[in-house]
Design brief:
Elements (H helix, E strand, L loop, with lengths): L4 E7 L6 E4 H9 L8 E6 L4 E3 L2 H7 L5 H12 L29 H9 L5 E5 L7 E4 L3 E2 L2 E2 L2 E8 L2 E12 L6 E4 L7 H12 L3 E8 L6 E6 L3 H13 L3 H10 L7 H23 L3 H12 L3 H4 L5 E7 L8 E2 L6 E6 L7 E11 L1
Antiparallel strand pairs: 1-9, 2-6, 3-5, 3-9, 4-6, 7-8, 10-17, 11-16, 12-14, 12-17, 13-16, 14-15
Length: 355
């Protein structure tokens, strides 16, 4: 019987936005260790670097220019230093005064991660011949390369060992973001108890919105107040707002008419979309639908947010006792862009064991 394995990789970007083929990196450093297995779970430890899911990765990587065109589209929608509140370090209560000059200015990277379809963890067929792309959106800060870490879990199958439901109180605000790691929710206590009770040392926890929950999604990112309550909320209200703000500043005209700025932002977006379309070789009708979805500036159509997030379980740090594998700033977050019908939303917790 083949025993599941776990591999840690350290990656060092040379540019702010860089793409790594992690499957190729594993082969180069460790040889064909993944070949005996049927499945692999790739997990990022970061909030501005993650994976393209297998379906999206296959589509945009079908042509050489696909990945770069996709990233250019994200950079167009979320330009660097476009007036994000998260980047106003002097307002950040989570950053000590003596560290503020070293804090990255990277709200654009967080928002691109959340809205752009990147996942903190993805599952691929182990024998799948195509690349597995790890996309770093903030790999360089003040000229210094960041050290990135990803963990690969190789296994043949997985079995469900527990499933339960929890209700999460939500506000009456139509747009909101709720940290699922808040102690008062008890969700993390519930997860830890399930892992311990069933003795899972290698597997994953899936958090998934209830079937009837609408106009909401889950992500795994940094829960910083200005980022979640201001910047992300603004994206949900007006997805092209920051692109328009960047356009206004590019003209050195802070009093530029917002409508005109938005028109220029849309022009830049259409140009970036056309480049992506050319790279992917999409048909004209699909182009029109893609443009319509994006320019409609509807959060439910624009944001590529999932209804579930996966958190790996491992005993690598505590042999014999499984625990969630998380990066320092990774927090599961419930995001809603329309008020819930009830004052709560339901989340299903599913624990599986890799075999």
């Amino acid at each position: 019987m083949i025993v599941p394995i776990e591999i840690d990789l350290e990656l060092e970007p040379t540019r702010r936005v860089e793409v790594f083929d992690v499957r190729a990196e594993v082969l180069r450093r460790h040889g064909p260790v993944l070949e005996p297995y049927r499945r692999c779970l790739y997990a990022s430890h970061h909030t501005t670097a993650g994976y393209l899911p297998q379906s999206l990765g296959a589509r945009i990587a079908a042509r050489p220019e696909g990945v770069e065109s996709y990233l250019q589209l994200l950079r167009t929608i979320f330009p660097e230093r476009a007036g994000y509140r998260h980047d106003q370090i002097e307002l950040r209560t989570d950053v000590p005064a003596d560290q503020r000059d070293r804090e990255p200015i990277n709200a654009d990277s967080h928002l691109a991660f959340i809205a752009g379809g990147l996942h903190p963890s993805v599952s691929y067929a182990a024998q799948h011949p195509r690349p597995v792309y790890f996309v770093d959106l903030d790999g360089i800060h003040e000229g210094m390369r960041r050290q990135r870490r990803t963990t690969i879990f190789a296994y043949d199958d997985e079995e469900v060992v527990a499933r339960t439901r929890v209700v999460v109180p939500v506000s009456g605000h139509p747009i909101d973001a709720i940290s699922l790691k808040q102690p008062q929710l008890g969700l993390y206590d519930e997860v830890a108890e399930l892992i311990a009770r069933h003795g899972v040392t290698n597997g994953r926890v899936r958090l998934e919105l209830g079937r009837d929950e609408k106009h909401a999604g889950l992500t795994l990112n940094e829960y910083e107040t200005l980022l979640m309550q201001h910047d992300l909320a603004e994206v949900l209200r007006n997805p092209l707002g920051f692109a328009a703000e960047k356009a206004r500043h590019a003209w050195n005209d802070p009093l530029a008419v917002p409508a005109k700025a938005l028109a220029y932002a849309r022009y830049d977006l259409v140009r970036a979309l056309n480049q992506l379309v050319d790279a992917l070789g999409l048909g004209a009708s699909r182009v029109e639908r893609l443009l319509a979805r994006t320019l409609e500036v509807s959060a439910s159509r624009f944001i590529r947010m999932r209804r579930s997030v996966d958190l790996p379980v491992s005993d690598a740090r505590t042999p014999g006792r499984g625990a969630l594998v998380e990066g320092t700033y990774q927090v599961p977050i419930l995001v809603q862009w329309r008020q819930a019908e009830q004052p709560t939303r339901e989340i299903t917790i599913t624990l599986t064991r890799f075999v």
